[in-house]
Design brief:
By secondary structure, this protein is an alpha+beta fold. It has 15 helices and five strands.
Length: 346
Amino acid sequence: MFSLASKLALLIVLLLGAFPSLAADGEKLFLEKCAICHGREGQGGVGIPLALESFLAQTPDEYIHRTIRVGRPGRVMPSFYRLSESEIAAIIKHIRGWQKTPVPEWDATPVQGDAKSGKALFDTHCVSCHGKDARGGKGTGLMFSRPRDLPIAPPSLNNQGFLNSVSDQMLKTIITQGRKHTPMPPASQFGLKADDVNNLVSYIRSFQITTMTGEHMLEEEAIIMHRSPHSFDQTLENVKRAVVDNQFELISFKLGDKHASDKSAHRKKATVNFCNYKMINDALAIDPRIGMFLPCQITIVESFSGVEVMSINPKRLSQLFNNDKLDQACQQMHDTYSQIIREATQ
């Protein structure tokens, strides 16, 4: 006998099959979420080429699923923690559409090896591409660009997102076989035997220090916003004064044009740009992607409902960057924005 839950699950599957529009559209999701880095046809770019046959032949579905969930902290690859299980499954199905070989099985069997011996082998054969302490080679996923002379950026193996996604057996397969059409050679090219490969896998696995699921993200509003009891002009002056009082340098302010869609002559907008160079330099040292959102900016808008003061929410950006080290800096920036806006609207 089927339980009520089982019957409902079966009904959903049948409905999705009968009405494809109800199912997650893998191609659409891929184009929205993945193509900007991995290419519309999976040919690669900033991200690795997902349509590469040697990649697909070595990569179980579970690895792709985990990668989408946890991303690569400190790298361009974010954590898509808001995607549903059906949406992730649809993306994986779309990626598999480029594959001609069978999908490999997930094998979580640990590899037994000597990490100390693996380090010596890594320093001899791998560090030139994957970097010291396996932190990645030239151009590895740190920005939205990579050197033109590289067919593919050697990934950071010492990355908690990667280590939480890959199995020992998948690592062993990649090291043993290499990856065709990339700079990754097979172990035999260096005269490495099975025990050597096991030692390399153990060394790479030794970097894992945490368990990630991709479900730990907290919901954060996209903007910080307060209503001002003052006039537009007074609020603008209040914002500029609060910026300076909070140890920031006022760079510029600009009065915006009336909104084209608003026929009223009473709607106004202004942006105030400012910066604290030490704070920004500290944040850039942690993750250079923060530069995309500089200089700091607060916007004042007047409409029929009143005057509102708003800014982006740095805590929301921190989650998008998927970089735990940046959280403290973004929290500090969030508190500063909030303080400036509160002072301006008191």
